[in-house]
Amino acid sequence: MDKAHFANTLSRWYADHGRDLPWRHTHDPYAVWLSEIIMQQTRVAQGQAYWERFMERFPTVGALAEASEDEVLKLWQGLGYYSRARNLHAAARQIVTLGRFPDTLDGIRRLKGVGDYTAAAIAAFAFGQPAAAVDGNFYRVLSRLFGIETPINSIAGKKLFQALADELMGGDPRVFNSAVMDFGALQCTPKAPDCPRCPFCEVCEAARRGTADRLPVKLKTVKVKTVRMTYVYVRCQGRVAMRQRGGGDIWQGLWEPVLLDDDPRADDLRQRTESHGTLIAKNVKHVLTHRVVMADFYLLETATRPPLPPGYIWTDEQSLDQYAIPRLVEILFEKLS
């Protein structure tokens, strides 16, 4: 298949079926960058609402840079992968220090939390540069169309697909990238792709061989671990014990109630919970990228403040909605009502 045929066919499909997304109506690099960070590991319907809230609360990169990390994390709450929010905040301060949004691939790539894909997407959508933003949709469409079985998460695979995407790019980079993304999301879907009505059906290797369901190929590299956590909601005269998680943690900067782990300093509270606590929920399953959390949740109401492990504070229960918390903790708190 030649470059012109691929680009033209894709462009015609996109004109009829492309999604109308708000960040596609602007070339503002801040708005484009924000959309790309939010949409990582996120469904469009959910991500769009967050993008709109961020644009309303922080309409410029300067406004985002001036915000506190707590403000950013609170607005991000529910999206998960909180390192994205912390990197977003740090990168906003990088941009303000630089004095402008970088407009080259290398410059964009130097921003905190920006990798090859995101840099290419910003370069294409904000600055019109001929950069192919190879994401999961690219991998799926190209691997099926050309029958490529090289694993997409191997070094060889990444180089192969990037080179192929660059070679096939034609026309407006904004349209080309948007078209491939939408084609993968709506037509050449991960499961049950609509092959009979696909404009590439007659030339698609996966359709010819019947291999669409096993492409693209991805190496299994990470073993998912199961971890157990026991939380206690300690309530004392209208106040609740909470702590902010420290650095080097998936929930860095987020708040949580008392966690009964293997810390011997929590032994007294553990004993009180076993004797006087109320089990609110047991074995609440929460799936993260590389681990599955099974959580138990207790309520301990007491007239006097029990000794707590270091790092916890007592805060007004009515002000808890001001704290950024992990989705798991949010789920547990919902069970209290």
Mean pLDDT over the residues: 92
Helix percent reads 40-55%
Could you say which overall geometry the principal axes of the C-alpha atoms support? elongated
Q: What does the main sheet amount to?
A: 7 strands, mixed
Count the DSSP helices: 14
Beta-strand content: 5-15%
Elements, N to C (H/E):
HHHHHHHHHHHHEEEEHEEEH
The termini sit apart by 59 Å
Poorly predicted tracts of residues: none
**CA-atom Rg in angstroms:** 24 Å
What is the total tally of β strands?
A: 7
**Structural class based on helices, strands and sheet pairing:** alpha+beta
Explain what you see.
Strand 1 and strand 2 (239-244) form a beta hairpin. Strands 1, 2, 3, 4, 5, 6 and 7 form a 7-stranded mixed beta sheet that branches. The chain has 337 residues and is α+β, with helices and mostly antiparallel strands. The chain has helices at 3-17, 29-39, 44-57, 61-66, 69-76, 83-98, 105-109, 116-127, 136-146, 155-168, 173-187, 205-209, 267-276, 327-334; strands at residues 225-236, 239-244, 255-256, 258-259, 278-287, 291-301, 313-316. Helix 1 (3-17) crosses helix 11, helix 2 (29-39) packs across helix 3 (44-57) and helix 9 crosses helix 11 (173-187). The model has no long low-confidence stretch (mean pLDDT 92). It is built from 14 helices and 7 strands.
